[in-house]
Task: structure prediction
Amino acid sequence: MTLALILSQAGAVFFFRPVLAQALPEPTREETGDTGSAGRVHIPSETASSAAGPPAAVPTPQQLEADGALIGEIRIVNGDVFDTSLPGENKSLFRLANKLHIETRPAVIRSQLLFKEGAVYSAALVRESERILRANQYLFDASITPVAYHDGVVDLEVRTRDVWTLKPGISFGRKGGKNESGFEFEESNLLGLGKEFELSYSKDVDRDSTLVRYSDPHLFSGWNRLKVAYSSNSDGKLRQFSLDRPFFSLQTPWSAGFGIGDWDRIDSRYDLGEVVDKFRHSERNAEVFGGWSKPLAGTWVRRFSVGAGYRRDSFDFIADPASAKLLPEDRELVYPFVEVELLEDAFEERRNQDQIERTEDVYTGTSLKLRLGYAAKDFGSDRDAWLLWLQAATSFEFDPEKRHTLLLNAGGDTRIESGDLRNAQFGAQARYYWRFSERQLFYASVSGLVSDNMDAERQILLGGDNGLRGYPLRYQDGTSRALLTLEQRIYTKYYLFRLFNVGGAVFFDMGRTWGQGNAGGTSQGWLKDIGVGLRLGSSRSAFGNVIHIDLAMPLDGDDDIDSLQLLVGTKRSF
Result:
């Protein structure tokens, strides 16, 4: 078992052994970096750190901004995967990992800062630069601190810590009674330049796939993103290419890009966890766009975009006993579009919410994105149709200590043909967090999805792969669905092998579908399950933040459902 495998998400399976049942010694606050509920995640380094706060002689960020301070030296301090100055990490295996690991180059970190030496100090740009750095999966955390002040000039220290980014090895997952496995070689920080490369083979319930993927989020050392992917699958192939300059900051004045995609595959329609029928689906798409943004006014950003899109979906029979008797309708849409986005500048740093022992940048503002397009036969479409996409989010906090937080989001899309809605889907979710203490939190989620005149290849499904953990995957089919999830979360101080922060959950799920979906199945009514889960927060690896190991017991459904479901997978949240 290689070190790289240990530090990848597959390594969690190797480590999940009887030692988890033993009483682990509780680590010290120095070893865990536990600074209390208001503290920031500890970022180890080999040198003396000023992360505990600037010297008394340095004014506060608000005072620096009010005084119009200029930025002097910008010092980049990037910690390695393991901090060998800590006794618990001064081990031969960890020292070897540091030697094998190529650290992120200072120029890569510096290029993502929204400020430069000689510029006027802005607390908002400093905070947003921290968020941009933390969004990189090859960095565990980031902080930017004023460390010296003289003659109206402030020196800043940018402190980050790398994680292990090389992932060769075997992966395994299980959900809804079905296994997923594969072999992969992935590097998410190639040569310390922040570029990603992946060569992998995977096998799941849908297909066997061999994938080659390359991504460069800072092409030519700027904010240009390049993504290229090719996949040879057991049922077809996938090709993707995109090049764009996104709205990478609240201050970004313009954005532009284009992308193309080609995916040939076999789609299956499900009911009660079993395949009802199959058909070949060829999907072609392309898009080009340009956008501009008004300067940040108060706390709001206003963005406008225009572009053109192409989408073609064609379907065919396959040589299989389960081949569909009736195919979905072919479609070809060519359309210009306009897009408007409103975004509130409202982010908060949290800890032990959806991650374990990591700084989380939680969006607590209000946002709205609306896109309107028009497909016409004169443009090359096979029909005239208005195309509408909508996304919205907001939040509420119910006490000054922020122990109660409610996050709301909604979205949907539809076509309007001859005055009628076609392929309309609209969904909404409410997530509620009630913090009892620094290490205990109650989580509740309520979500729903409704549809009207769905295209025949689309399904609204509910099962073990999307929230109803005690049941087979893709178990219920319908025209609408609802799901309730309740979780009592615990974030422990255990730091397993100094690789994984340990957490746990006790959960209850309840959901159902309504109506007769495109697979022809009927609703099974309300289905419920209960279970317990182990959470391993990966503090050293870039591949998935939280490893989930769940045992769920169904309380309803058919007698042929297994009385206990095991789910193993890696997710971005708790």
About this structure: The domain at 166-571 is CATH 2.40.160.50 (Porin). The mean pLDDT is 88. The two ends are 27 Å apart (CA to CA). The longest strand covers residues 274-293.
